[in-house]
Amino acid sequence: MSHPVMPEPDAGTLARRGEIVAAMRRIVPDGTIDGAVGMKPYESDGLTAYRTVPLVVVLPETVEQVAAVLAWCHAHDVKVVPRGAGTSLSGGALPLADGVLMSMMRFNRVKRVDFENRVAVVEPGVTNLGITRAVEHEGFYYAPDPSSQIACSIGGNVAENSGGVHCLKYGLTTNNVLGVEMVLMTGEVLRIGGAHLDAPGYDLLALIVGSEGLLGVVTEVTVRILRAPETARAVLVAFDSAEAAGLTVADVIAAGIIPGGMEMMDKPAINAAEDFVRVGYPRDAEALLIVELDGPPVEVDHLLARVEAIARGRGATDCRVSTSDAERMAFWAGRKAAFPAVGRISPDYYCMDGTIPRRELPTVLARMRELSVKHGLRVANVFHAGDGNLHPLILYDANAPGELEAAEALGADILRLCVEVGGVLTGEHGVGIEKRDLMPAMFTETDLAHQIRVKCAFDEKHLLNPGKVFPELHRCAELGRMHVSGGRLPFPDIPRF
């Protein structure tokens, strides 16, 4: 996987910059930014290795403004990149030099909460944690909890189908979103789903969640809220090998136990997190599992005993069960802080995201160690182990010649390994630009053509977030002309976008 190549900026669009900026100012008078300094914060998302200054930034605050911006850009063939909080780790919100960047962070209201029917209607700029804060006084919460939940927006969660440490039992974003209001590139406003259990007809909502800003701009989200569990306790389990921890994960699920969360960290991640938050993680452990059970107290006690027995049977060197909610939250504090903590032990790191069958965890961990040696870079591992979602953190120094390229190559090998063992390229971060050129490793020419046809049905001109997800950009009339043989694209030395 080489450095992603984005489409060449359109010279005609760049020449019309003054006209485009003036149009945006007419539509969004107090929310248009066109100065170099003002646009600087928008040049990158969480994948900070790649940066582009946008043509212009707009911050609409009404559905009418969103629709007017999109309709104008559609009529004048101007590209648009939607952006939430900018925490994407796959480059999904990377701007285009010839495109309008549309930030949705002014859409930040909780519009309605219906506790009786257990739903909340929110705007896309509301933070993930903000939903829980709005309902917790009545004993409710919003289940998906990305590690960036204090900052990431619900609109971005919808775009990337975000997960989190408690998604093993309660599902990803797609399992907790009931409906959206969305504006198409033409300016047409759609409502799909709503505050009901199931919608008639095709399941378009499942198509939209995880569509990475390619199909429309979400302006409202209806989410499911859950009653907080009666009891939640966590057990911290240490192992002297990562393979033993991986086998324990498979054993717990095979025993019919579905924890609220089951996370795994290896030794470099354990020590980085402990240095950062000091919650008492065992520094000598090669791997650490955090397993949380929730429900009625008698059920939680019973399942904790079973999990501990399974772990002891796999050679666990230590098991520590939380005795208070504060201690349980401390266990999670280290895991939630793992990504920033690793930033203390390396000038830069590249956070990958792939998913594998749980049974392959020991094999993949061993192979990843070999790949780490091959590329000469360290890797700290943090997993949503219960659902096989890996987050290898590749440590490198961007100022050292060749290290970014080595990190990209190691990341590509890890993702190919995920596919090889029966997994997929991503679990929750999305494809964006990061995994775009690896899509043919997982999908055939026919698969990709059908996916692009869906894109064409919503955005025939390919003006919404172009250059992302698909390894080769087609005009809708050209579908079927690309030939892929043996998983290899023709003329692989030609840059693709």
What does this structure look like?
One of its GO terms (molecular function) is oxidoreductase activity. The chain has 497 residues and is α+β, with helices and mostly antiparallel strands. It has helices at residues 11-15, 17-27, 36-39, 63-75, 128-135, 154-160, 167-170, 204-208, 242-254, 267-277, 297-313, 325-336, 338-342, 361-375, 403-420, 439-442, 445-458; strands at residues 32-33, 56-58, 79-83, 99-103, 110-114, 119-122, 140-141, 177-183, 189-193, 217-224, 226-227, 231-239, 261-266, 287-295, 318-321, 348-351, 354-355, 379-384, 389-396. It folds into 5 domains: 11-103, Uridine Diphospho-n-acetylenolpyruvylglucosamine Reductase, domain 2 (2-Layer Sandwich), CATH 3.30.43.10; 110-227, Uridine Diphospho-n-acetylenolpyruvylglucosamine Reductase, domain 3, CATH 3.30.465.10; 231-340, Alpha-Beta Plaits (2-Layer Sandwich), CATH 3.30.70; 344-429, 2-Layer Sandwich (Alpha-Beta Plaits), CATH 3.30.70.2740; 435-497, no CATH class. Helix content is 33%, strand content 19%. The strands form 4 sheets. Strands 12, 13, 14, 15, 16, 17, 18 and 19 form an 8-stranded antiparallel sheet that branches. Strand 18 (379-384) and strand 19 form a beta hairpin. Helix 9 runs antiparallel to helix 14 (361-375) and helix 14 packs antiparallel against helix 15. The longest helix is centred in the C-terminal third of the chain and has 18 residues, at 403-420. The chain is globular and about 70 Å long. The protein starts with 10 loop residues before the first helix and ends in a 39-residue tail after the last helix.
